[in-house]
Specification:
Glutathione S-transferase Yfyf (Class Pi), Chain A, domain 2; 8 helices; about 45% helix; globular; binds glutathione
Length: about 230
């Protein structure tokens, strides 16, 4: 059911998804008028109706507004930075770095860590060869990010960009993953720098959760799909 709203954008999302958080955070940091359109069950997006009505790829996030329906967080972040002029990189070299790190995020950093956290921290699956492999992949990705962030305050250089917004997508969640984040002081400082940006907010304060928690209930789902 859709709530009536004057917001420019609706974001199909759920709070547990760091890929959705990437877009929610960008919308907030840019000061755009948006609201979450909550997609409740973890399997909903694979349903034929979602693929037919919302996005052919059957994945969250999806951003609707200005007559567009956009999917893939990287494409959405790129669209928002191009149309607002924010967080896109200040010259050609920075823009190449933005693209390089967003590709790294999408093929290695987010997939390994997000899947590990989903299996261990949300589904509470015992360790097995798959989680062990993911742990190894996530560790490599964390080591790469740690080194980079020891050399630069933000992943593409001196200023925050959509590459940071993409890479931090899963980093503010507390669910168990088995990764010892105390080993990564540069990543921790970088997350503090991002959290100090005006209008930053935690993912569970921006989007309704599929698995409610009394500790941090978050916003109510006023606009839902289907
Ligand atoms: N590369 C995609 C990844 C999107 C993705 O993996 N989305 C997950 C949620 S985090 C999803 O919708 N999975 C299908 C489902 O939950 O049914 C992006 O960045 O947008």
């Amino acid at each position: 059911m859709s709530a009536s709203t004057n917001d420019e954008f609706a974001l199909y999302c759920r709070g547990e998804s760091g890929n959705c958080y990437k877009v929610a955070l960008m919308l907030n940091l840019c000061g755009l008028a948006w609201h979450p359109r909550f997609v409740n069950f973890f399997d909903d997006t694979s349903k034929p109706a979602f693929r037919k009505e919302v996005s052919d790829m059957g994945e969250l996030p999806v951003l609707e507004g200005r007559g567009l329906v956009l999917s893939q967080s990287g494409v959405i972040l790129n669209y928002l930075s191009e149309t607002t002029g924010h967080f896109g990189g200040r010259n050609d070299e920075e823009r190449r770095e933005v693209l390089r790190w967003m590709l790294f995020d999408n093929h290695r950093f987010t997939p390994s860590y997000a899947t590990l956290r989903f299996m261990k921290g949300i589904r509470k699956i015992e360790d097995n060869p798959v989680t062990e492999w993911l742990h190894g992949q996530a560790t490599i990705a964390f080591d790469v990010a740690e080194q980079r962030l020891g050399e630069h305050p933000f992943v593409a250089g001196d200023a925050p960009t959509i590459a940071d917004i993409s890479m931090c997508g899963y980093q503010y969640y507390d669910e168990a993953s088995g990764i010892d984040r105390g080993r990564y002081p540069n990543i921790r400082s970088w997350l503090e720098r991002i959290a100090a940006l005006p209008r930053w907010a935690h993912p569970y304060d921006l989007m309704p959760r599929a698995i409610p928690s009394a500790d941090r209930p978050g916003p109510a789902a006023q606009d839902t799909w289907p």
